[in-house]
Write a structure and sequence with these properties.
Elements lengths: L27 H13 L8 H14 L3 E5 L2 H11 L7 E5 L1 E3 L5 H4 L3 E5 L9 H7 L4 E7 L8 H11 L2 E5 L7 E2 L2 E2 L6 E5 L12 E5 L2 H11 L3 H6 L22 H11 L2 H19 L5 E3 L6 E2 L5 E5 L9 H10 L11 E3 L4 H4 L21 H8 L1 E4 L8 H16 L6
Parallel strand pairs: 2-4, 2-5, 5-6, 6-9
Antiparallel strand pairs: 1-10, 3-14, 7-8, 7-12, 9-10, 11-13, 13-15
The structure holds pyridoxal-5'-phosphate.
Length: 417
């Protein structure tokens, strides 16, 4: 037995001063790149300069024909849905558990997000998705929660069999892959966030990927009126005449954010390799802690390790509540152990319960959801404790302290009952 629990007056395991995790990593080269950009251009209305560099870099990294940057991941999702011809009254099947922005832009298109049960890992369950397909279904949406790829092959098969588009929200999963194929390349299009903590970060920003020319022109029309539409949409295309106004929205990335993201893009594979090492260490050691379970990653699947998720089993610790377990971890100084807050089952959110108050024209075939509608997703969310995954070798010492904190709380669980 170790020393008494910090929550009960003992010494904490983790003594390093916080924060223990910060993102994105910034060094002198990053600073130089952003400062250089500051002195060259802070507004780029065409596909040129750092915006072109970043989009070219993304196209090369993902192996796709088109990458279109946006002001945020939410904007990328909005533009992607519009470009995928999601129209008023259409249904889009989305995972019941994701960050709400995966689906919320659908309300602005007067389309209906149809929530779908997930697998225990939190990713959309392809068999459940198939059951939800109706003549109104336009698309099937996959998030790759915490950077663990969804079952992309099964989802592509379901989408293909029913003639609906597969779309992806890759915001947790930049660089993750399934049998060598990168997340974001499995369907008609994908949207990614470049927000602060995401595996690839520009601080703020996002992008859409697609191989389809028409979808590319539609993203431009939706999000990049005037210059980009005028120079990138062929004169013969039916959308070309709308170039000056587009759809009326301008959702451009800031050049300084693009410079930061471009700097990070060159380091992404290094970050991912480092995270994989530390994730393996954490998984190996936390798997031995009673009360915690680490879900294995299937053969051939490479995660981005945006987060390492642990399933908490109260029944293995005399019924100790996850709240109390988590509180004891924090008291041990392991403050990065986190319970997902805003990334929660969507039917618990007022927007998804009563969209009509904010969107009076919302189609009436909105389904009614209640607690218990998605037992697997709800159970997984309620029992998840997650940890950001460090990427540097020198972070192993801290990872090791986090493991010891978890083992200590588990060891002493009886004192918390
Ligand atoms: C962060 C995130 C978004 C939204 O991206 P922003 O850049 O913050 O607008 C959408 N979906 C998922 C899964 C996210 O994690």
């Amino acid at each position: 037995m170790t020393s008494p629990l910090a929550l009960l007056g003992g010494e904490p395991v983790v003594t390093a001063a916080g924060p223990h995790f910060s993102w994105p990593p910034i060094d002198d080269a990053t600073r130089a790149r952003v400062t250089t950009q500051l002195e060259s251009a802070v507004s780029i209305p065409s596909r040129s300069g750092i915006v072109a560099d970043l989009e070219d870099g993304l196209q090369e990294y993902f192996g796709v024909r088109h990458a279109i940057t946006t002001s945020s991941g939410t904007a990328a999702l909005h533009a992607m849905y519009a470009a995928a011809r999601v129209d008023a009254g259409d249904e889009v099947i989305v995972p019941a558990w994701t960050f709400h922005a995966t689906a919320s832009p659908l309300f602005h298109l007067r389309a209906v997000p149809v929530l779908c049960e997930t697998s225990p890992d939190g990713n959309i369950d392809p068999a459940c998705a198939e059951e939800l397909i109706t003549p109104r279904t336009r698309a099937l949406m996959a998030t790759h929660l915490w950077g663990r790829p969804a079952d992309t092959h099964a989802l592509a098969a379901v989408a293909g069999a029913h003639g609906v588009s597969l779309l992806e929200d890759g915001s947790h999963a930049h660089g993750a892959s399934v049998h060598g194929r990168k997340i974001g390349t499995f369907g008609l299009a994908s949207a990614f966030s470049l927000n602060g903590p995401k595996p690839l970060s520009g601080g703020e920003g996002g992008f859409v990927l697609t191989d389809d020319d028409d979808t590319y022109y539609r993203v431009l029309t939706f999000a990049h009126y005037n210059k980009r539409c005028r120079s990138e949409i062929p004169k013969s295309h039916p959308l070309a005449r709308y170039a000056v106004t587009g759809s009326g929205l301008k959702l451009r990335i800031h050049p300084l954010a693009a410079a930061l993201a471009f700097d990070q893009l060159h380091r992404l594979d290094g970050y991912l390799a480092g995270r994989a090492e530390i994730a393996r260490f954490l998984a190996d050691h936390l798997a031995g802690v009673p009360g915690l379970e680490v879900m294995p990653v299937p053969e051939g699947v490479i995660a981005s390790w945006y987060g390492l998720t642990l399933t908490y089993h109260p029944e293995r610790l005399g019924g100790l509540s996850i709240e109390r377990f988590h509180q004891a971890l924090a008291a041990e100084g392991a403050v990065e152990f986190d319970r997902p807050g805003s990334t929660r089952p969507l039917h618990e959110l007022p927007l998804y319960q009563h969209p009509g108050s904010l969107f009076p024209g919302h189609p009436r075939h909105h389904r009614q959801y209640r607690a218990g509608s998605f037992p697997v997703a709800e159970h997984a969310h309620r029992h998840t404790i997650k940890l950001p995954v460090w990427h540097r070798e020198q972070d192993l010492a801290l990872a090791e302290q986090y493991v010891r904190a978890a083992a200590k709380v588990s060891d002493h669980h009886q004192e918390l009952l």
